[in-house]
């Protein structure tokens, strides 16, 4: 297993209680993780979400970099959508392997959860203004560290076994972030999951990353203290 965290995701349903949760997850196409863009979220990750009663909407062409066709994702249970505006409006959690542009940020709804691979230097005042205005909880795939202090995302992108193995590892990593957010309320999910405490840099519009706050000369609040105090 790569890195510090073992992924606990599995392909069978996690229990009847989860059927009561209906948060939808939207996946946008595009990839800023690797130069040739072959590492994508694989259909089996989508299937895992669907089997656990999670509605999934994907942008058409999501798997093109790795030669997955839209039918593969449809067979996994995803809704295929051409209009990204629909994905933004109907999804509670938005997953993009590229940082969002200002125009894309403007399409977010209030109180959504955003998962992207922004770096510390890309979390700027323009981004934070949108997140604050819309009370977004934002996670970065690049903030989670391995036991050596390196970037966990880079570990999984370079896992032995080639592109398919890297895509599978990426899918498992995303599921390890998504499932706690779906099957628990946000506050308790963050309290109980070390990965989330590293990944979250904005909690309901409040900046929680001290390094970013120092760079942008902005106030910040401790994430765990926010969670424990309500």
Give an overview in words.
The protein is α/β, with parallel strands linked by helices and 230 residues long. The chain has 11 helices and 8 strands. Strands 3-2-1-4-5-6-7-8 form an 8-stranded mixed beta sheet, sandwiched between helices. α1 runs parallel beside α7. The N and C termini lie far apart (35 Å). The N terminus is likely disordered.
Global structural class: alpha/beta
Shape: globular
Q: Helix count, per DSSP? A: 11
In angstroms, what is the radius of gyration? 17 Å
Q: Estimate the strand proportion.
A: 5-15%
Number of strands: 8
Q: Separation of termini?
A: 35 Å
The helicity comes to 25-40%
What is the H/E string? Answer: EHEHEHEHEHEHHHHEEHH
Largest β sheet strand count, sense and barrel closure: 8 strands, mixed
Average of the residue pLDDT scores: 88
Question: Uncertain regions: pLDDT < 50 for 5+ in a row?
Answer: 1-19
Itemize the secondary structure elements and their pairings.
Layout: E1 25-31, H1 43-51, E2 56-59, H2 70-75, E3 79-81, H3 84-90, E4 93-97, H4 102-105, E5 113-116, H5 125-133, E6 137-140, H6 152-157, H7 162-182, H8 186-192, H9 194-199, E7 200-203, E8 206-207, H10 210-216, H11 223-228
Parallel strand pairs: 1-2, 1-4, 2-3, 4-5, 5-6
Antiparallel strand pairs: 6-7, 7-8
Helix pairs in contact: 1-7
At a glance:
With 230 residues, the chain is an alpha/beta fold.
């Amino acid at each position: 297993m790569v890195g510090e965290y073992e992924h606990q995701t599995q392909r069978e349903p996690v229990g009847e209680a989860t059927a009561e949760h209906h948060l939808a997850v939207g996946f946008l196409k595009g990839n800023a993780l690797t130069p040739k863009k072959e590492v994508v979220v694989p259909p089996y990750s989508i299937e895992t979400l669907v089997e656990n009663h999670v509605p999934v909407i994907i942008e058409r062409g999501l798997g093109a970099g790795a030669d997955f066709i839209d039918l593969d994702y449809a067979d996994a249970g995803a809704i295929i959508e051409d209009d990204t505006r629909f994905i933004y409006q109907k999804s509670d959690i938005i997953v993009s392997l590229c940082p969002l542009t200002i125009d894309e940020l403007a399409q977010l709804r209030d109180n959504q959860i955003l998962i992207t691979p922004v770096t510390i230097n890309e979390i700027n005042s323009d981004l934070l203004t949108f997140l604050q205005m819309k009370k977004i909880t934002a996670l970065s795939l690049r903030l989670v560290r391995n036991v050596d202090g390196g970037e966990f995302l880079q570990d999984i992108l370079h896992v032995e076994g080639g592109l398919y193995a890297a895509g599978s590892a990426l899918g498992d990593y995303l599921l390890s972030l998504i499932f706690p957010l779906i099957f628990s309320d946000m506050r308790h999910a963050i309290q109980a999951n070390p990965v989330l405490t590293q990944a979250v840099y904005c909690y309901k519009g409040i900046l929680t990353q001290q390094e970013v706050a120092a760079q942008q000369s902005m106030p910040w609040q401790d994430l765990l203290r926010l969670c424990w105090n309500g």
